[in-house]
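User: Can you help me understand a structure? I only have the sequence.
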Amino acid sequence: MKMKVRNHALYFIGILSYIVSLIPFFGINIIRALLLIPVIAYTLPILEYLQPKIMVLKINYKDLLLILLATIPYIFIKINLYIIIPIVLLIVTFIFYFNKNTMWGNVLGTTFIVSLSLVWALFEDNYFFIPEIYWILYIFTGALYVEYKIPYRKLNKTIVQASWVLSLIILTLISLNTPLLLVSLIEPSTRFLRPGEKLKSPKEIAPLGKKGSRRDIIFVALLMLLSLLSLLHY
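Assistant: Let's start by predicting it. Here is the structure, written out as tokens:
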């Protein structure tokens, strides 16, 4: 299996997802958090290698062995209801790819990757899951936003807006004890509720991605800061 980094976005959101899984950084199992670094270091290349094969549903027995290798460390996590989220996302991703709906497959596939932050948090004995839910819903709507912006995608902006409105409702409800976290939703709301017009050219996709990456970093930084402030205040 040749490992050549092509999907930089996968590694980017993978690393950010690991950081999110550590929030609030205290009360977690430090040894497990450190052990997770090499696990993620080989999990992400495996995901990158398998992604194009999953998109066309051409997986052989060697690929299945890689999947098994990637899942072995997670047999040591404590079973929790939140584990259902990445499982469901993975299944739905396969369904969309099976039905040749690449756009939704990509959106749900990206969301599945960031939902691994829940699995990693469980591995670290971190049960403060609110930042992970914020991150998952933010990335899901963000992926829809990008798909909407692509000139040749037939996605109405109302889908982006509806997704974020629903996300805001969910996040508000789970943040009753940590209302400071809602501050992190201000910037994404201005972007997702008013997504603007589609890009005029595919050449504009790369700059859009770079701009989005900077916003992702800011969002995670805010999650870190506001989570700490919320818990210290609480």
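Now, to help you interpret it: Residues 43 and 71 are 9 Å apart (CA to CA). The two ends are 49 Å apart (CA to CA). Let me know which part you'd like to focus on.
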